[in-house]
Amino acid sequence: MASLPPGECCIRGIKHEGTPKGSIEKIAKIPTYFARPAKPNGSAIFIFGDVFGPIYQNVQLIADDFAAQGYLTVVPDLLHGDPVNVDLFLGGKFDLGEWLGRHDPTTVDPIADAVIDHLKNSLKVKSIAGVGYCFGAKYVVRHLKENQLDVAYIAHPSFVTSEELSAITKPLSIAASEIDAIFTKEKRFESEKILADLKLPYQINLYGGVEHGFALRGDLSIKEVKFATDRAFEQAVTWFNYWV
Asked: Where does the record place the Dienelactone hydrolase domain (predicted)?
C-alpha cells in the first residue's frame, strides 16, 4: 500500500472557528455543501472529505476558502449520512473496521461518479480539481483519470493502495505531515517512486512538526500548525491555478 488504513489519528482534531457561507443542496439526491465564488473562474473543486463527512464545519470553511479563489467548490456526502461518531469511538464503542466495511469503493465510487458527471454535464465546468483529506484521499486517487478528475491535491492520505496510485493519469500534489503513523516516511518514499516512474507532474511537500490531519483539523493556536495549514492550502491553490 502507498498509505496505511485509517486509525485513531484520523478522528482527532480541533474544530475551527468561523461561519460557513455556503449552502446544502442536492446532486442526484446526494446532500452536498456548495461554496460559490463571487468571481467564478469556470472550474470546480470536488472535496472528498474525511470520516466526518460534509456536515462538518472545518471542511465547509475550507470549501469557502477555495471558493474565494474563484473555484466553485462542492463537498458531497460520500458516507450516506453515516459519519464516524467520535464520542462512541473515543469511548471504545465504535468498530472502525466494521464502519470502513460499509464505506468502501462499492458505496463511495458511485457517489463520486455521479458528482463528477453533474459538474461536467449539468454545470458545464471546464475542469474539475479533486481535494482529498485522509479517508477521502483514496477516492481522489481512484478518480484521477481521463474523463474524471483533471488534477488533484491530497493531504495526509490514508488507505491508498500502490495499485491505485500507479493507475493515475493526471497531475497530483501531496501534503505530508512529518508525524504520521499512516502516511509514514516509508510510504511517502514508496509513493514518490511510483509517481516518478509514472512520468506525470507531481509534488510532495513535507511539513515538519505537524501530525496526521493537520491540513483540515489542526490546532491553529499552535504557530507551527497554523503555518503548515496555511502553506498546505496555498500549495493546493497554486497547483490548481497552474494545472487546471
From this structure: 30-241
